[in-house]
């Protein structure tokens, strides 16, 4: 097999590959010879069809099949010979596959960039340190009770936490604006679901009252037409409903999976869940901070194919999250909407891969099992979940990838400048803003 590099521009490579004619022709002949024993052709007994006749009938198809397989196998032989790491599948051009002549074609593809990792001792990471204390547990229980709260129509004036049913019309310079009106809308005061000043302005109103709220849209509001604009809302209050908090009893505890043990067991479960959430949040936050540092310290030339793959994955994730089960054509979503994030993900993938290779890292089996056990612990039958993960290679490989990232994180932390920072529980579990987003 002959291999020559036709061109090398940036990360693109073009290989010209040649395979001897006798290798192709012999394989075609062998397959046709085998076919003579099995094919049925009118006028000949099965197993007695002459090779010449079989070739006339099936030769072109068999040759096409052999050429396709040979292009695939010879390409991978060629990249191993040239020690190249292609990104994705190659584009095959200029195929010449005439009988009696060498098979020739060109393969065009991109390769992974070669990078020199920055000194990991330059990494600086702030690591949150937090505990779940009694007041944190009480706050969480209040959140859970609020989730199950009911509302009962009341004659009293509205207070923070009450639910009001309202009609409203919003105007800017005395003209209504899109999305600024509604009828019969329920609103819990203090939920911060409306723009600043709206809910506060309804504290103290009673059913049947009408009021005008003068508020201003935030400067970062999603509508360009309303950003920072001062507007008015004419509001009619249809009803006021007071909040009824559920009692701390067995009926309430069962809503959160506690069948026995009463309040003591419920509090234990709440604290255990909070501690698990805290561990996961800190682990994720530290990993993200490490990855951000690796990205900033290592500049990577990115293959276009790698970025395209990340864009497709980001589109699929958005459709799964917000598509509501609808079949959406991904091409309708503009690539540029995802490009910056895709480039960041692609670069980090290359950087992490280089750390893994340079350090000879492999997924720690004990860590993988611990992560699977942690996932399984949230289900009623943990052992069944563990067995399921270990019976599905694709699921297990996803866990192994996460564990490998954790190992990269720990490796970097072992060489980085790390500062432990004591923070409250609420701050520890709150995600950092995504890079590039406004804080």
Could you characterize what this model shows?
It is a single chain. The protein has three domains: 2-111, 2-Layer Sandwich (Alpha-Beta Plaits); 120-131 and 252-429, Trigger factor, C-terminal domain (Trigger factor, domain 2); 150-244, Chitinase A, domain 3, CATH 3.10.50.40. A hairpin with a 2-residue loop joins strand 7 (163-172) and strand 8. Helix 1 (21-35) crosses helix 2 (51-81) and helix 8 packs across helix 10 (393-415). Helix content is 44%, strand content 23%. The longest helix has 36 residues, at 262-297. It has helices at 21-35, 51-81, 134-147, 250-254, 262-297, 304-322, 336-359, 365-376, 382-391, 393-415, 425-429, and strands at 2-9, 12-19, 86-96, 103-111, 124-129, 150-154, 163-172, 175-188, 210-216, 230-244, 417-422. It has eleven helices and eleven strands. The strands form three sheets. Strands 6, 7, 8, 9 and 10 form a five-stranded antiparallel β-sheet that branches. The protein has a four-stranded antiparallel β-sheet with strand order 1-2-4-3. The chain starts with a strand and ends in a 10-residue tail after the last helix. The protein is an alpha+beta fold and 439 residues long.
CATH architecture of the largest domain: Orthogonal Bundle
What string gives the helices and strands in order? EEHHEEEHEEEEEHHHHHHHEH
Spatial separation of the terminal alpha carbons: 58 Å
Task: Kindly report the name of the CATH homologous superfamily of the largest domain.
Answer: Trigger factor, C-terminal domain
Beta-strand fraction estimate: 15-25%
The radius of gyration over CA amounts to 33 Å
- The helix content, as a percent range, equals 40-55%
Q: Mean pLDDT, as a whole number?
A: 92
**What would you call the shape?**
elongated
Question: Which class best fits the helix and strand makeup?
Answer: alpha+beta
The beta-strand count equals: 11
Briefly note the CATH topology name of the largest domain. Trigger factor, domain 2
Oligomer: single chain
Tell me the count of domains: 3
The main sheet comes to: 5 strands, antiparallel
What is the CATH C level class of the largest domain, in words? Mainly Alpha
Instruction: Give the low-confidence spans.
Output: none
